[in-house]
Every structure is written in C-alpha cells, then in structure tokens.
Amino acid sequence: MGNRCAVIGVGQTHYTTKRRDVSIAGLVREAAVRALEDAGLTWKDIDAVVIGKAPDLFEGVMMPEAYLADALGAAGKPMMRVHTAGSVGGSTALVGASLIQGGVHDRVLVVAFEKQSESNATWALSTHLPFSASLVVGAGGYFAPHIREYMRRSGAPDHIGTLVAVKDRLNALKNPYAHLRIPQISREMVESTPMLWEPIRYLETCPSSDGACAMVLSSEKAVTGTPAWVLGTAMRSEPIFRAGRDTVNPQGGKDCAADVYRQAGIADPRRDIDVAEVYVPFSWYEPMWLENLGFAAEGEGWKLTESGATALDGDIPWNASGGVLSSNPIGASGLIRFAEAALQVRGMAGEHQVDGARRALGHAYGGGAQFFAMWMVGSDKP
Amino acid sequence: MPSEELIADHVLEFPGGYTRTTGPVIGRFLTELRDGRIVGVRTAGGRTLVPPLEYDPDTGEAVTGEFAEVGPAGTVESWAWVSEPRKGHPLERPFAWALIRLDGADTALVHAVDAGDARAMRPGLRVRPRWRAERTGHITDIESFVPEVTRIVSPVRAEYRVKPGKSLARFLEGVERGIFLGCRCGSCGKVYVPYRLSCPECGVAITEEVELPDTGTITTFAINNLPDPRAPQVPFVSAYILLDGSDIPMIALVGDIPAHEVRQGMRVRAVWVPEEERTASMSNIRWFAPTGEPDAEL
Ligand SMILES: [Zn+2]
Hints:
The complex is a heterodimer of chains A (382) and B (298).
Chain A: E1 5-12, H1 24-39, E2 48-52, H2 64-67, E3 79-82, H3 88-101, E4 107-115, H4 121-125, H5 138-154, H6 160-172, H7 187-191, E5 195-198, E6 200-201, E7 210-219, E8 228-237, H8 251-264, H9 269-272, E9 275-277, H10 285-292, H11 301-307, H12 323-326, H13 330-345, E10 359-366, E11 371-378
Parallel strand pairs in A: 2-3, 2-4, 9-10
Antiparallel strand pairs in A: 1-7, 1-8, 4-7, 5-6, 8-11, 10-11
Chain B: H1 23-34, E1 39-42, E2 48-49, E3 67-69, E4 74-82, E5 95-102, E6 109-113, E7 126-131, E8 142-147, H2 165-177, E9 180-184, E10 191-192, E11 208-212, E12 215-224, E13 236-243, E14 250-254, E15 267-272, E16 285-290
Antiparallel strand pairs in B: 1-2, 1-3, 4-5, 4-7, 5-6, 7-8, 9-10, 9-11, 12-13, 12-15, 13-14, 15-16
The complex binds zinc ion (ZN).
C-alpha cells in the first residue's frame, strides 16, 4: 500500500438543484477553500491537484480541468483529471491517495463536482447512436432490469426499496449539506410516488444536484489537525458486455471489496466496520451492495435492511449522511462518500455522527456497474 | 315596444393634460432621470428616500437639500405578476410590478420588471434599469427594470459521420436479411450477439460466425414510464432477451402484450417489419412478442 496517507481536510458545498449564484469555477473553489480551512492550510501548501467529474457532455465544457486550474490554485503544479463515470469521485480520491502513498507528494487536493443544472444527465447518458435501437433512457432505465432481477433472485418483498428511501432521507435531515430535505418523509409518501422505470419509483431515485466536494490528503509527516488514516484503497473494473457477467452482483465489486478489506484487516465487514458510505443511487442498491460488499450472504441483504441494521441507530449504519439518494452531484457523489467516511472517523460528522466510529468504508460505482472504487479509513494510524 | 335605453360615450380630458409643477426636490429627481441617473434625497435623520419626497414622512420636517446617486442596480423586495397587461401598462407582455430597493437607498421604488416569466421573480432578485433612448424627465424614462445577467446559453453541437464498423456492419447485414448473426469465441466457447470480432473475456480474435434464431427468453426488463422524444411511446418495456443459443442478452423492445403482463422467463420471438421495408438497421425489428410457449427456467 506504500506510505501512510491521511485525510486532513474536507470541504463540501450545500447540495441543491440549481446553484445559480456561482460559476463552475466558483463552485469547486467553494469546496476547495472549505477543505483548506478545515486542514488549516492555504493554496501554497498544496503540491498537486486531482479533479474528477462525470463525462464532459454533462455540462458541455470540454476538458473543464484546464479551465478550472486557476480556481484550484494549480498554476505551476501538477493537475490531472480522472474519468470513471459515476464512480469518478471515488477514483479521484484514490488517484490523489496514490500520489501520497507513492511518495511523490506530501499534500494533494482532490476535488470533484457536477453542475447538473447546466444541462440534463439523462440526455447526456443516452446519446442514441445511429444503427441501434433507442431504448435505454438514462441511468434509471439501465438499472431497473437489474433491480428487478435482484428482487426475483432474492425473493425480497416489494417494500424494501421503500425502507431505504425513507431511511436515507431521514438521515439527510441531520446533514446540513444534504440536498433533499423532506421532514414528513414516510413509506406512504414514497409509495404514493409514480413508477418512473418500474420497479423504481420517483422517491426511490437520487435527485439531480449541483455541488462540489474536496479533500486535502497528506503524507504522515505533513499531517495537520485531525487525520483520518487511509487503511486500504482499491479499484476494479469489468467489461460491460461479457457473457456470464453478473449484473446484480458484479465480480468487480466483490474483488474490489476483498482487496480493500485485506489491506485494512477487515475479516467480517458487518462486525469490523462501524459505518459505511456506499453509492446507492436507487434505493434497491442498498440490499444489492450489502451482498456484493460482504455485509450479508447472497440473497440476504434485504433482511439486513428490513431489520433496521443499516439505520443510523443500527449496528452497521449505511449512508448516515443521507447518501446519494439525498444528494447527487454525479461526479462528486463518489468523493462525498469517501469524505463522509473520513468525517465519521475524525468524529466531525456533526448530527449524523455515528458514536465512536473508528473504521469506515467509502464506496463508489459507475458506468453499467462496471467501475468500482473503495477505501477504508480509520481513526488509528495503521 | 319599450323605448331604447339612452347611452352615450363621454370623455373628460383637460386639453393637453394638466401640468404638475415639480418643486425643487421632485424636479431634481426627474432632471437626473432625463440624464440617465437616479438620485435620492437625504433626510435630516440620514435616510435616503428614493423616489424623493419633499417632506420626511417620519418627522414631518423638510428633507435636506442633499441628493445622492443610487443604483442603478437594485434588489426586488416584493412583486405582483401581471399576466395580462392592460392599456396604459408600461409593457405589452406579462411583467411584474415590483418594489425595488436601489443600492444605496433606504426605501423601495415601484416599477415594472421585465422578467419574461413569473418563475424568474423572487425576493432578492437583482435588477437594473432599461433606459429609454429618448428621455423627457419622467418616471417612464426607465422603460422597465430587467434582471441582471446570471446565465448565458452556450450552444454546443458536434456533427459526426458515423460508420458502423466491421462487426456491426456484418451484424446489420444479417438484420437486413431477417437473421441475427453472432459469433463463438474459440477460446471460451461463449456465443456473442451482436456479432463481434474479439472476446471481451479472453481478449482473443473471434473468427467463427454463428447464425442465431429469432427466438429467446426475457431474462429481465424495465417498464419505462418517463417520456423521452428519442424513445418509444410510454409505457414501453425494454427487456434483456437471451436469444436461443447465445450467452449474452440483447436489449430490445417487447410488444403485442400489455406492459404489466410481461414476465421474466417469458418466451419471445422477433417481429420483423415486412421484407420490402427492411434496411440495415435495428428498426427492422419492431419488437419481440410472446410466443405462447411455457416460461423458461431462469
Ligand atoms: Zn472468450
């Protein structure tokens, strides 16, 4: 795993439908400044900048990393852009961490963002090339069949997706940065919303958000303030079209989890991890990823959800921040998971803090569930 | 027969219009307006009144002779939307009457805001005056206020000439003839459809072409209820269909059956457009329809 690496600063913008008051540069700057303030540092203390976002079609800005170099204080420093679709926020953190672990730099600023209000993600995700049929409309259209297959295989009752939709929105009420804040959220409310891509209901999907998240990563000797130590990092990918690929429980996700657990010394994730921030853009992905990430046996994930184990007061809280279901600036969503995991083990998560959290998982996935990025962070130096 | 009701139009208008002697305070305000500036008057208590008044409404004292330039930008405090403007209104299209506090002023001015759409109005909206070219020293020298520029539209358009490539072209040749062409990997033995030239699992070139039947099994599906101009009419069923003899499902439309009667495991067959309408395109397949066979085990 290389040299020790720690998160020493976290900055987020308040996630919302439309940030009409700032440019893209202003948005990323806001998150970056907050991360620097958290670390007690200034721009000159940063050695390199790594930025991630969803594909350029989302805002129609070609190579935004070039335009954003000034806003992120990158003049005269290395700056690079990471691309791994929806998992890009996670991959961005891991590329930044690798620059510390490899001994190349002492302090790296990692930033991810999306300003979805400048266009339309469903449009950007469905370009409908000639010669083929135009059938899949957006991410919901793509993931709905895989959710249906999970329901069939596991025999999970229909209301499991509703439970997650309610739980994550209740958590969001404790997170001042969360986008969706629905105080009266209830099962009845979720069930009364229309099916968009059956079996996915409106309130079982993530919102479309504007926002940015940033972290300052540090080598051991450059640590300031309260560190969250990186205990393990892993990325995996797999081809989207491959005969026998399990789209419900992808091998890439299992392999990635096994790798990050091995590095962090996690034998039983449910027992050894205190809190997990997992990329759940559609509520049914909580039980699916509970199985993929080894928190439950295959076909049993929904029982963990149903038992309340993943609630904020359960034995393994998932998405205490409200998760992607409550805030989804796509390119940043993975980085937010990683940052929230760090906040938990630093004891700085505020009202959604999980008491005594010492080891946390940050997770992101992207593309057609084909890119995975994960890290384990802890309060104790490895 | 009752006598017709007696009605007549009558206009009472002083020829040429009444005059209004402005006095020094209002006169200064209107003079500045004619020059394209907005001024307020200071009160003894230090407040800046815009539009100016001759006497301080708080104390009844005369205002000071001191004028201060304000604005030209200001902030909307409140508004009422006029969806059907009347004769005599400052604009012929829908607009807002708004209370606008100009920068540097302590009171708000009533004026029209040309915002285009009621949804663009909100408290705190920043606006600026749109001046008339010909000014006379009247409040209508400001035609209306308009929102500040906060967003521009940036059209991006890329035009491509797309060629299907060797493997897709071969597959479409089959589709034009009404058959599905696949291929078998010489290394792992998996059968892929559409036809492709390499195996994504093994990374080797594939040379064996296979002709597949147009029947298969629905492995899973979504019912799409969100309308999109580029997609079929909702609700439509997009399904993963495993053609008989292949190892990877294709995504296709399911038809000839109500959306909610589609099942996982359902046996289906491609419905082709008539031969004379066929081209080298997936639109040759209207959709897949149930065969009526018993469902397959998944
Ligand atoms: Zn092969």
